[in-house]
Amino acid sequence: MKEINTRVNEVTVFLNKAKIKRSGKISVQKGKQTLSITGLPAELDPESVRVRATGSAPVTIYGINVRRTFFKDIPDGIIRELTEKIEKLSEKKKKVTDQAEILDKKQKHIDGLWKATRIFASGFAKGEITIEGHNTLLNFLHKEGGAALAEIRKKEKEADDIEKEIKKLDEELSLANNSRPREKFTIEINAGTKKDCGINVDVTYHISGASWNPEYDIRIGEKNILIDYLAMIKHTTGEEWKDISMTLSTLTPSGTSEVPELDPWFIAPIMKKFSGLDETRDSRAIPLAASGAQIPDSEVSYSEIVREEFPESIEADMESTEVIKTGASVSFKVAEPATIPGDGSYHKVKVGSLELQKNLKYITAPKKDERVFRTAESENTEFFLLPGKGQVFENEEYLGPVKISHTAPGEKIKIFAGSDDRIKVSRKLTSKEVDKKFMSDRKKINYSFEITIENFTNEVKEIKVLDQIPVPSHENIKIKLDECSPKTVKSDELNRFEWKIKVEPGKKSSIRYDYSIEYPREMSIYGLP
User: Which helix (H) or strand (E) holds 450?
Assistant: First the structure.
């Protein structure tokens, strides 16, 4: 059996697995023979294996056999590379340690000479030592002793640094070993030719343990928005993907070969159990969160303010990437060769870039946050964007993360662009009055609110303002919007309102509205402003 030496040269990464193409060359003799490709990852799907062979003479493949094998030696790829690095560093550390030991012996010898200087008086009396000779000896010992100590400390630090690097590589090696089982696959190919020749063999197969996620780097400039479309790729196969042709696919191979069928769906009433609760309590009362009641102040994110108004998404242009549409999926051919180690960690590959014109919109919801937020709006004209995360920067300032939703071509996309501190917003309760009609069996409270917007920029700004009044949770509670200036441009059944206000540079504009709440005097209610 002759072994074919192959390498990975093409990879298509799906959302939950990958398709691998390996290629190799081998010289064969006339007649039938068995060729093998060994060392294939344990994550290989045997049913997905396909083999193609071509040569200077016709090649016939009679069959292939995929079998599982076990290995004892250190496999090729990242584990072998880590092992070799550790061995080299260990040898280097040994040399440094040996040098430190030699220096230590030298230092001990110098210490012995220092002790010998104590007999100076006896030697001087006998005429064996002069003052000049003694001083020369002291200077020599001082110089050599200081140099030896400095060199010892240097070697000790060098040994410590090497030990730290070895420890780090040991951890990486342990992770790589734990991420791959001690087994592999071998493909045996039964082939034949009518004469001696050289043949080229291509083998493709699917593996699990590989995936990719989209990620977006977004930079907002003076006039444009620059978007880098990135792919975070990982695989745990230990297989070496070095300088390969990389394709990213939105397909999710499921392995399902049947159309799902629905089982009957039954519902039934819930048997209520009362354990000391008041059974006469009005069942029409709704939870606090649904009543429109105020909640304790807390830090509010942009997404909480405009969750319904602004589903965040961005567009990424594959300017340097070939886009391949196949049925319901889309594939991106990465322009540059990629290298992805099989250590299970994410590695970033740039798919493409896009430059958009900056069309900023302004929005505020001062009941939640007295800031004016910005979004850049555009239209996705070409690509299907997958859900993922993005990071937004303005010049060199980090504005924060955004979530990217699935966006089809033709859909509008909105990019969070942070807040504009040059526009000030305030919302105040200007009046709260209780109706003085004591003879009535109903209580009425009148509220007045004012929202003020100040524009400290040098441009006219149109700002979308969002606000709300309470929603009644009981039929005996009546809420009415009495006055509103200017009029709202939009409202809904949950008493949420929208205004569009234009504010001149250096000027301020205001929104004023009054509403009333009326309910039975004996009723206690929660959620009042």
Answer: strand 442-455
Say if residue 238 is in the same domain as residue 368: yes
Q: What is the mean pLDDT of the chain?
A: 79
pLDDT digits (tens, 9 = 90+) for 150-164: 888 888 888 888 888
**pLDDT, tens digit, for every residue of 217-260?**
988 888 788 888 888 999 988 788 999 999 998 777 655 456 66
Same domain, 15 and 67: yes
pLDDT digits (tens, 9 = 90+) for 26-68: 999 899 999 999 989 888 999 999 999 998 888 899 999 999 8
In angstroms, rounded to a whole number, what is the distance separating the alpha carbons of residues 474 and 471?
A: 9
DSSP 75: P
In tens, the pLDDT along 293-332 reads 332 333 334 344 444 443 333 233 333 455 555 445 677 8
H helices of 117-224, in order, are 120-125, 131-178
Of 419, 438, 463, the one marking the end of a domain is 419
CATH number at residue 482: 2.60.40
161-175 pLDDT tens trace: 888 888 888 887 777
| Pairing label, strands 490-491, 338-340 | unpaired
The tokens 């012995």 sit on which residue? 112
The tokens of 523 are what? 């009723």
Same domain for 323 and 185: no
Question: Same structural domain for residues 203 and 216?
Answer: no
CB 204 within 8 A of CB 379: no
Are 323 and 384 spatial neighbours (Cβ–Cβ below 8 Å)? no
pTM of the model: 0.57
Would residue 192 count as lying in a domain? yes
Helix or strand (DSSP H, E) at 102: helix 78-116
User: Does one domain contain both 388 and 459?
Assistant: no
Euclidean distance between CA atoms 244 and 58, whole angstroms: 29
Task: Report the DSSP beta bridge partners of residue 29.
Answer: none
Residue 151: closest CA among 93, 99, 91, 90: 99
How far apart CA 170 and CA 163 sit, in angstroms, is 10
Compute the average pLDDT of residues 472-489. Answer: 92
Domain membership of residue 160 (yes or no) is yes
For the chain, percent helix, then strand, then coil, each to nearest 5? 20, 45, 35
Question: What angle do helix axes 131-178 and 78-116 make, rounded to 10 degrees?
Answer: 160
> Does the residue 381 lie in any domain?
yes
Structure tokens at 433: 């009055």
Same domain assignment for residues 334 and 224: yes
* Residue 231 within a domain: yes
Helix ranges restricted to H, 228-310: 302-305
User: Residue 266: pLDDT band by 50, 70, 90 thresholds?
Assistant: low
**Domain count of the fold of the chain:** 4
Host domain of residue 220: 211-249+297-419
